[in-house]
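Troubleshooting log. The previous structure file for this entry was overwritten by mistake, so regenerating from the original sequence record. Sequence copied from the archived sheet and checked twice against the printout by T.R.
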Amino acid sequence: MHRWPLEDKPLLVFYETTKACPLACRHCRANALLKPLPTELSTKEAMKLMDDLTGFGKPYPILIMTGGDPLTRDDIFELIDYAKSLGIPVALSPAVSTRLLNDDTLRNLKGKVSSVSISLDGARPETHNYSRRTALEPIDVFKSTLEVFRKLREYGIEFQVNTAVMKLNVHELPQVFKIVKDSGANAWEVFFLIRVGRGMELEPLDPWESEDVVQFLYDASLYGLPIRTVEAPFFRRVIMQRNSGVKYVGGKLYQELVASLRELMGEPPINIKQPSFTPTRDGYGIIFIASDGSIYPSGFLPLTLGNVRKDNIVKIYREHPVLRSIRDARFNGKCGICEFRNVCGGSRARAFTELGDPLGSDPACVYEPPMK
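Regenerated output below.
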């Protein structure tokens, strides 16, 4: 496979189709609502966005339809079919609810989407249901989520599991990993909490806890399930260090997580391919379109770059000065002198949220680069 030209076009385009959602998750970036806002892109405008995406040239970026819950849009299958007719690969990120993500929906999705992403934020119903609370009728979201895993496998639809990690659930990560591995998922994507939207209610990990967790994720990846992180790009530094033989003793949290992992999974199998990664980061390989058409570097970095109603997404991605600085790894502070800045680059969203500087150093990274 040829290296994706991240300087020229994103690998992933996230399109927040709507803010409407039957869930009211405590960490929701989107501040999702029960009903759609009148400002969201119309069917025609959404199709125009897809037309613009073809300007990146083939192979086209993957269009990830997210929300809110994209299934609440009456035209969601019309939009999926239109993207497919253009040759744009589509992935879907629906919310788990008994009403919308049903057998008819899954039958319609089969063969139309490249993958589906489903969230699981705890290994116990108490944890997951607390995080993924419902805004409508009460349902056991944990039980429904496990049932959706089974049905996706039954229908032959590839899926990944997304987990938002925070102090609330960090000690359950080994158990969550086992559930994900046993579910038949194709990947596990671990989101490190950024305090935006309703995420202001929850407590993120401190920097050394974050380091312990990404080091644990390296150990978990040795069991053969691809693992990616969101807003913790320093996981790539860890992959490079550990692949080259650097040992990590870790703190109490790391030792607890790895001991639990070994107890649940046994020793890692031999001859597993070393973990690898694609060096994307907010605004580099990733771009986000909000429900009203606003363009952001990512969903967690609410820095407006333009709007697809009047601006061309290709031009914004290739020419916007903030994105050019991110692409060229022209960062401030220690991120700017770090030898891993081109493969990691730190969380631009966290730097913006906590420091007010999208080019600042990532406050969650404990690594101290050698002084020049």
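The mean pLDDT is 92. Archived copy saved in two places this time.
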